[in-house]
Amino acid sequence: MLLATTVRAEPSHAIAMHGEPALPADFTHFPYANPDAPKGGRITYGLPGTFNSVNPFIIQGDGVRGLNDLEVGMNVFEPLMARSFDEPFTLYPLVAESVETDAERTFVEFQLDPRAAFSDGRPVRPEDVIFTFDLLAEKANPRYKRLRDKIEKIEKTGERGVRFTLDPELGDRELPLIIAMVPVLPEHAIDRESFDKSTLEPIIGTGPYTLSDVRPGERITLNKNPNYWGADVPSKKGFDNFDEIRIVYFRDATARFESFKKGEIDVQIEASPFANADPARWTKRYDFPRVQSGEVKKSTFQSALPSGMRGVVLNTRRPPFDDPKVRRAITNLFDFDWINRNIFDNAYTRIGSYFDNSVLNSQTAPPTDAERALLGSYADQILPDILASQWTPPTSDGTGRDRNFVRNALTLFQEAGYKLEGRQLTGPDGNPLSFELMIDGSDGEMIALSWQKTLALLGIRLDLRKVDTAQYFERRKRFDYDAIIHFYSSSLSPGAEQIGRWSSLAADAEGSFNFAGAKDPAVDAMIDAMLAASTRDEFEAAVRAYDRVLLSGFYVVPFYFMGEQRVAHDADLAYPEQTALYGFQLPTWWRQTAADQ
Question: For the purposes of burial, counting CB atoms within 10 Å of the CB of 223, is it exposed (0-12), middle (13-18) or buried (19 or more)?
């Protein structure tokens, strides 16, 4: 093991991606948490999917959710520092009590909290941090290896310090924060050789809960650790308020809603960064007995989050979507206006940017000089309307019979070398245009059926392939599809996760989130610019330039978003008065009757 001898920088209680942390060193709790929240009781969540492994870090098998999850909490595994969801991207103490870095962020050093311990009582050591990064790089999801490759060395500094020296050629200012968000695993309790194999044997962590019951594919139960070390850490005040958490898994959304109606789960997220909304259900189907009796409450929340990108992802690894002209033409045949009017009671707004509804949206203002400088020669590949911030997704009259809407799409197909012969659109090779959309059970089926009818107006055959959740995730992992429906969530500080979603490096990496197979030097360059930005102005310019490049690639047929977050829940559940910048935070909720226990 290496022992560092370099001079230490000035330690800080927090680190922000851009600017300074909003909270002082003596802060007592996050503004969106109630430090006096009652403790006790049980909550049951319902999550989509299934699982056959309780190791969430590896590729093999279907990993369980809920152990280190942004939606329901870092319940079992905790990172070095905790993210405040009331700021774009700022981290505060958790397993590490302080952080040090230089202006160029060529290194980051953490001092571990002397109280930090795993659930078996063993203290967290710098050796555990070093072990974690080496283990995950060797045995876990490839994104951890990509992260480890950016770190030149990891050293123990003193009794409780660990220092990461970073590759100075990368210029990645986000890297210290990404390192700080990696969960810490116990060297003494993990078999390194078998770590990459699916298992139902729980792994211990530093978190407030331990995994006590596992029913593969069905549910898990988490119990509060009465000896949890971090109960008094300010970033945990007001969190983890339940004695028991149950997480039930559902293969389709209908089954999950029916379970909620019966009171088998306590929270039904109807619209959030983690769930697609069903406006008709929210307005018309909440008349069941538990609502009428007052046992269920409907709550809405506002956030400043970007919309993210929800839509049909087109697999550019396969024809016909290897042709960007075809991708653009296909995008112009999605009749959002009819769908919004007839299916969703006009509840939605069409997505016009990967960062719609935020300051990062490139289509709200013409490009700045800084954006143009970043784009350089890549500006030539951007659609003129997108470069000029004058592009919006195509609109129709909402009748489903808008001839101009169809005619405009046909023009784009003709520019791609297609011909309409009779009622059949054929390509340059003489073959009719057809493709398959793979969907997870019934998720997105109504939208797909509507789009199928619109495409048929030009003789384009869309085949729907409904598969169960297990098969869906397996095929998605191998990029075995023509198109899928996916939601790329977003934040006010997009960064390294974009590498896994859109970079050339991730295009052929099995298990990555580059579902479109994008391989574009312009995309790679804009990601680099985002990660290298040192001020907020530089960062926002880089993100808007990145947005223009992605939009011009027509990798996704954009759907829609809803500004408010909608959650139905057991009426006995309560939440803090202040909503975080990112919206509601389930780990801060509590059960009101717990105050009477």
Answer: middle
**Helix runs in 150-206, H state only:** 175-180
Give the Cα separation of 494 and 542 in Å (integer). Answer: 10
27-57 as b/e: b if 16+ CB within 10 A: bebbbbbbeebbebbbbbbbbbbbbebbbbb
User: If residue 268 lies in a helix (H) or strand (E), which one and from where to where?
Assistant: strand 267-271
Rounded CA-CA distance 579/479 in Å is: 38
Using alpha carbons, select from 268, 273, 236, 272 the residue that is nearest to residue 253. 268
Output the CA angle 276-280-282, nearest 5 degrees.
75
For residue 404, give the H/E element and its range: helix 403-415
User: pLDDT tens digits for 369-407?
Assistant: 999 999 999 999 999 999 999 999 999 999 998 999 999
User: Any idea which residue has 């490009």 for tokens?
Assistant: 367
Query: Which residues on adjacent β-strands are paired with residue 110?
Result: 99, 162
CB 537 within 8 A of CB 500: no
**Who contacts 197 (Cβ-Cβ below 8 Å, separation ≥6)?**
58, 60
Strands 42-48, 244-250: pairing kind:
parallel
Positive or negative: CA dihedral 585, 588, 591, 592:
negative
Is the pLDDT at 312 greater than 90? The verdict is yes
222: CB partners within 8 A, 6+ apart? 66, 67, 75, 76, 209, 210, 211, 212, 244, 245, 246, 247
The kind and range of the H/E element at 290 are: helix 289-292
Q: What angle do CA 99, 100, 101 make, to 5 degrees?
A: 130
Q: Is 309 helix (H, G, I), strand (E, B) or coil?
A: strand
524-574 pLDDT per residue, tens: 999 999 988 888 889 999 999 999 999 999 999 999 998 789 999 999 999
- How much is the pTM? 0.78
What are the φ and ψ backbone dihedral angles of 414, each rounded to 5 degrees?
Answer: -65, -35
Which H or E run contains 374? Answer: helix 369-375
Q: Which amino acid is at 396?
A: S
| Residue keyed to tokens 């013409």 | 366
Other CB atoms closer than 10 Å to residue 474's CB: what's the count? Answer: 14
DSSP state of 188: G
